[in-house]
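Below is one such record:
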Amino acid sequence: MDDVSNGEKALPSGEMKSVNDEPRRELSTIHRLRRANLFPWIPARYALAIISFLGLFNVYALRVNLSVAIVQMDNSTAQQYRHGARTFKWSDEEEGWILAAFFYGYALTQIPGGWLATRFGGKWVFGVGVVMTSVFTLFTPLAALSSVELLIVVRVLEGFFEGVTFPAMLAMWGQWAPPKERTRLATISFSGPYVGNVLSFPLSALLCEYGFDGGWPSVFYVFGSVGVVWFIFWVLLAHSTPADHPRISSDERNYIERSLDSENTRTKDRAKTPWFQILTSPPVWGLMIVYFCTNWGFYTLLTCIPIFLKQTLGCNNNIPIVLNGIYSSIPYVFLSLSTLLSGPLADYIRSHWLSTGVTRKLMDIVGE
């Protein structure tokens, strides 16, 4: 009788094999893909920067597609298109609610998004935020055809799920970015939204003019589908921390973990959040005021510029929707360039001339 008391059994060749190894079959295709290093020449932290760039690209594409599509959806501003998609006679007030609805949901999940990323890992919070926004985007045409109220609800839900994305990504970089590379990595990652604006404005306009299902519905189907496909790759390739990454080299993992403060790598040792000190801090309130004003202008422009070009400038019959999309993207071409250049420039300035604090204040002043 084979002796299996020690967890082994004899093979025909006379070799011993652990009984515990028997259930282990050949790895599935998905598991092999997760463990395969598809791009061995790219450090894992930079691979994360690239895939998060694409994710944040989707985040803004999903956010602004309605800003262009509504030009065709509202028959009070639409031209005579070749396609036969249904249009809507919305009042200015209804249009305002439709365009603003996203931000009501978006504002609700900013702080919870950071907490959830710390609790469950930024990978899943960020990924679920993007894919759920994509799913609701796919339902946007159906919602619009049903009622303006349902469309508003869908946009609120899109904003609700998308609101966790930026806090989750910041939490991930807290685990992945060495201090000396933090600005560079964040610049690559967070330039995704601006490049997304540059491309999604004209692409949305092209889909309105030449897309399937009558034009404007194809905007939501295409961008929503792209977000779902991106999520599949995100699940396979992204990981919340270097310790979770099955393909990272030991040298890179050790470099990242050694360069990060222990408070960032061992969350269980973190002190309680000093909420009172935060809420009574003049620098915190100064930053809140600065970014409130910045985002007021930024999101007003982002949301309203296509319909502004159609209505306020009196160009309803002179500017085709494709040109409208191109004109709307121009501010974000320069914003993308300045974002990509500002990170390395800030790193250089603080390495050679100014302190980190002064450098950040200088970049904020110039940016405002």
User: Anything to note?
Assistant: Residues 1-27, 77-82 have pLDDT under 50 and may be disordered.
